[in-house]
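[step 3/7] fold_predict: job queued, chain A
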Amino acid sequence: MNSESLSLSRLGALWIVALLWLVASTAHAGQAAIVVDATTGRVLGQVNADEQNYPASLTKMMTLYLTFRELDAGRLTLGDNLPVSRWAANREPSKLGLRPGKTISVQDCILAMVTKSANDAASVAAESIGGSEAGFADMMNAQAALLGMANTHFDNASGLPDPDNVSTARDLLTLAMALYRDFPQYAHYFSTTQFTFEGRVVHGHNHLMDRYDGMDGLKTGYTAASGFNLASTAVRDGHRLFAVVLGGRTATKRDRLMASLLDAGFEQTEAAAALAAAGQPGTGVARRVLAALSPIANAEADPAPASSPRRAKHHGKAKTAHRSGHRASQHSVKLANRKTRHAAAAKSGDD
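[step 4/7] structure written:
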């Protein structure tokens, strides 16, 4: 067996182990995954990437995007102290335990959202930027439209249980890539694993970042209805990948799958580069490897989602269109069933 065949065999095995685990799993939440080569913009693999699911705390990536936008425009500074309302203080865990009438700096809000996934900090940022969390949700949806997140609708800033807070693996990956592309000066926050707040050390939830070589972000998420979600980015030898996993049965299985997807993605890009150097087309590698995933028909290398600006829609109209499109989708029955369970799990805390 030559070195190319050996590489393809090893990579194919990684994809089969990782993605068949995802498809065969029987978790109550919808499951999806996607991994993209940020250097070339190619989707290296995807499963159910356009199925609507609950993003849980991956929602906070948009809250952070809008916070970074305010910083970039000079309307906020990292040292600004933001007021804590009773609404924000009363958000369900995970939270910092902020008290009404107190303040928290913009920087601490950012660190709290990235590490502890603090829902009270997310609401503080939302109210300060949007006037109210509902007003901020309008801004979130307008920005999602501009980024091309066509299958996403946000109803709150944190990702706490809400039947109208939905997204897809592809849309969340688009958002993750936009954070690094549009605000590289703030990307270092996503590698934070802990910070000190009011004299106590606040630890983060993203334990895979401590174990996976080259990973430097992004965000975890969990509710009972969503399962265990993770958006990640990692860089090796100057080559960066982004990936999203939704609906893991446990945090351990979610992390294991993410590591397998990134390993396979890095090996695939290395194999493609080697073939390109030898004068052979690199795209054949992705197609031949992912063909081993049959009958998962949509697991095929294709262009990354476009991010051309779209006209922002009025919140009410966007919500109506979202619901209409959602009912018409092939996944509507499954999502409706999850919404029923969602109500029963409404008190479950997001991570």
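[step 5/7] annotate
The chain has one domain: 3-344.
The radius of gyration is 20 Å.
exit 0
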